[in-house]
Each structure stands twice: as C-alpha cells, then as structure tokens.
Design brief:
- By secondary structure, this protein is mostly helical.
- The protein has a single domain, classed as Arc Repressor Mutant, subunit A (Orthogonal Bundle), CATH 1.10.10.10.
- Helices cover about 50% and strands about 10% of the residues.
- The protein has seven helices and five strands.
- The strands form two sheets. The protein has a three-stranded antiparallel sheet.
- Helix 2 crosses helix 3.
- The chain is globular.
- The C terminus is likely disordered.
- InterPro entries: HTH_MarR-typ (IPR000835), MarR/SlyA-like (IPR039422), Tscrpt_reg_MarR-type_CS (IPR023187), WH-like_DNA-bd_sf (IPR036388), WH_DNA-bd_sf (IPR036390).
- This is MarR family transcriptional regulator.
- It comes from Pseudarthrobacter quantipunctorum.
- Keywords: DNA-binding, Transcription, Transcription regulation.
Length: about 180
C-alpha cells in the first residue's frame, strides 16, 4: 500500500508527537508538587467558567464521563470541587469549583506558564494557528480523547469548547 502523504507532513506528524510528549512531561513535572495531574487541571479549567453537570463537563473537555468521574472523585476529596445532586434529575450532579479549587487552578496556571519554553524566536501565534488548523482537519470520529488547549493568557477569556490551539491527549485514570 502506498501513501500520497507529503514527506513534510510525515515529518510534521512526528514533530507534533514528540512536542506533545515533551510538553506533557514538562507539565507533569511542573504540577507534581501541587499534587495535580494534567487531567485534574483540564477538569478544573472546564469548570472555571461556572458549574456544569458531569456529562456537560466531559463533553466540554472531550473525555469519557466515566474517566472524568474518577478525576472528579480525587478533586472532590482534595476539596477543589463540590458535586451536588440535582433535584430535577437525581442521577445528575452539579460540579462546581470551590475557592480552594480556584486557587489551585491559578497556581497550576502559573506552573504551566513556567514550564513553557521561554524563547522569543518561537512564533507562538503562528504555531497556535497552524495547530488549530491541524486539529480541525482531523476526522471527528478518530479520537474522542483529544482535548483543546489554549495558552494560559487566553484561558480565562474562553470556555474550553471554544479554545483554539495545540492539542494533547486527554485523561486516563492516572492523568496521563
């Protein structure tokens, strides 16, 4: 079987994969002393705009609701979120950031910023635009675990489903 894929595209796919692994490793290292995982930060980010039920949050951050449930249990145990059973549908929980959850999210944002390369020669805006095009070009059915990610300076102004930027794998139980 032959491929019509441009050789530059193959190289780019590989670079994206390597870059994602390096970014994830740096984020893991930066968040470790806070006792957080990337998965936890993604969930906290999803709640930064206000309370959601678990299914809405899972959809917003593009992960499976069951996977998210395990992350939410840990966040609730740490006091970063509350989950309140909905009166209209007793199966649904309203998930909401606590004050300590908002504070730990801000600390995580600072740590993530410090984990990024500080190289003024990198065209972050161009990179972000190109990666957004790449993510948009991927067939929707390929992976439901791709999570949109915007640089920290854009996070507070946008809801997770509206962010544009690079992408990295979503959550598993360990946050990897």
């Amino acid at each position: 079987m032959t491929s019509n894929l441009d050789p530059d595209a193959r190289t780019s796919y590989r670079l994206i994969s390597v870059a994602a692994r390096l970014v994830q490793r740096r984020q893991d290292d930066a968040l470790a002393h806070l006792g957080l995982t990337r998965a936890a930060v993604i969930a906290l980010e999803g709640l930064a705009g206000g309370p959601l039920n678990q299914e809405q949050l899972a959809e917003a951050i593009r992960v499976q609701s069951q996977t998210l449930g395990r992350v939410l249990l840990r966040l609730e145990g740490a006091g970063y979120i509350t989950r309140t059973r909905q009166s209209a549908d007793r199966r649904q929980f309203k998930v909401e950031l606590t004050e300590s959850g908002a504070a730990i999210l801000e600390a995580a944002r600072r740590e993530e910023i410090n984990a990024y390369p500080d190289d003024p020669s990198i065209g972050w805006k161009v990179l972000s635009e190109e990666l957004a095009k790449f993510v948009s070009a991927l067939p929707a059915g390929r992976s439901h675990e791709v999570v949109p990610f915007a640089p920290p300076e854009h996070r507070s102004a946008r809801r997770p489903q509206d962010t544009r930027g690079s992408a990295f794998r979503g959550m598993d139980e360990s946050g990897h």
